[in-house]
């Protein structure tokens, strides 16, 4: 099949109309004929090949609402990965997320439509760095954010995500903890738990760009604006916000509280995804995109599902070592 040859026919229009109704407020009608043939074909192929698509909350609306079977934050995707029945998993997100799925499903085919979809946090630290820190701080437990490579996860005691970092830190019987590699998440969790977190100079290239001044300026410009932020933001940004939580925490906040006006201080595709479900909420959108998440597109997903490439490959030894820190995290009760 030539991927460029897909046409928007009457049959495809009819078959995808219920999906378009969900996204019509965030995808203009003239764009739909470009997306619909891919959505239709991908949804057909999923059935034929017994494949499931897991998509992070930062995927664009045509992926998030059009083809994903399971959507969520990093914690939800890791939890769902334990129960997958399909033979093939397509992870629409970044590489460390696909590795987590592979670690929890070593016998399944795990696809990521672009192997270069990385993460500035995962790039910031190596297994050698963790070994050196263990030498420098003997006996201090090591927590690593899931935004790290499998090789780093293989070196640590337990993982966490932004959705359970507080609970993971509190579950450890220690007052001093190595918390790697996000310096901002560490500072925010240190405040919440009162424990001393030794950290690493890693940061998310998307969230570190937000400033407290920007948030206060928005609050001044829009009366009664509710600001919700991701905890990968610097502490002064989190302090200026009305709520901080994981991407799924932020989505639940909007769905439950239905603020009249909201500013989501995070990657901007997420506002589009939530806006499609909450037409009564006005979204104020500073647009910081994650260039890694945006590598995942419908044509690449179709190509990947057609060719069953590129696959996430990890050796068995690495899987065994990294699995322990992920399973320990999944055993910690979170909100
Ligand atoms: P969440 O776990 O909150 O979805 O965050 C993942 C991520 O990469 C945020 O930048
Ligand atoms: Fe990594 Fe930040 Fe992109 Fe999330 S938004 S994948 S933390 S670079």
Quick tags:
335 residues; alpha/beta; Rossmann fold; four-stranded parallel beta sheet; 12 strands; globular; binds iron/sulfur cluster
Descriptive account of the structure:
The structure is a single chain. The protein has 335 residues and is of the alpha/beta class. It folds into 3 domains: 130 residues, Rossmann fold; 83 residues, NadA-like (Rossmann fold, 3-Layer(aba) Sandwich), CATH 3.40.50; 78 residues, NadA-like (Rossmann fold, 3-Layer(aba) Sandwich), CATH 3.40.50. It has 16 helices and 12 strands. The strands form 3 sheets. A 4-stranded parallel β-sheet has the order 2-1-3-4, sandwiched between helices. Helix 4 packs parallel to helix 5. The protein is globular. Bound molecules: 1,3-dihydroxyacetonephosphate and iron/sulfur cluster. Iron/sulfur cluster binds next to helix 6.
């Amino acid at each position: 099949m030539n991927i460029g040859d897909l046409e928007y026919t009457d049959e495809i229009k009819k078959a995808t109309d219920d999906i378009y109704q969900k996204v019509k407020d965030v995808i203009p009608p003239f764009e739909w004929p470009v997306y619909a043939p891919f959505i239709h074909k991908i949804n057909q192929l999923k059935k034929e090949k017994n494949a499931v698509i897991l998509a992070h909350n930062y995927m664009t609306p045509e992926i998030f609402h059009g083809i994903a079977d399971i959507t969520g934050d990093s914690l939800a995707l890791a939890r769902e990965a334990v129960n997958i029945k399909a033979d093939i998993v397509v992870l629409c997100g970044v590489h460390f997320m696909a590795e987590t799925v592979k670690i929890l499903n070593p016998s399944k085919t795990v696809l990521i439509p672009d192997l270069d979809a990385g993460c500035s946090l995962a790039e910031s630290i190596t297994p050698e760095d963790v070994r050196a820190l263990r030498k420098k701080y003997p006996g201090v437990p090591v927590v690593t954010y899931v935004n790290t490579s499998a090789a780093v996860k293989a070196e640590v005691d337990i993982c966490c995500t932004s959705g359970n970092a507080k609970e993971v830190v509190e579950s450890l019987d220690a007052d001093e903890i190595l918390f790697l590699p996000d310096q901002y998440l560490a500072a925010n969790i240190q405040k919440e738990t009162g424990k001393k977190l030794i950290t690493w100079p890693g940061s998310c290239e998307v969230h570190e760009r937000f400033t407290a001044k920007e948030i206060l300026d928005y609050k001044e410009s829009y009366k009664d604006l509710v600001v919700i932020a991701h905890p990968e933001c610097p502490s002064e940004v989190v302090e200026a916000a009305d709520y901080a939580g994981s991407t799924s925490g932020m989505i639940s906040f909007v769905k439950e509280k239905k603020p009249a006006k909201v500013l989501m201080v995070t990657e901007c595709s997420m506002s589009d995804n939530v806006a499609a479900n909450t037409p009564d909420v006005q979204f104020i959108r500073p647009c910081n995109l994650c260039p890694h998440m945006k590598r995942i597109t419908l044509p690449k997903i179709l190509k990947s599902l057609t060719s069953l490439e590129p696959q996430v490959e990890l050796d068995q030894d690495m899987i065994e070592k990294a699995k322990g820190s992920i399973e320990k995290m999944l055993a910690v009760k979170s909100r």
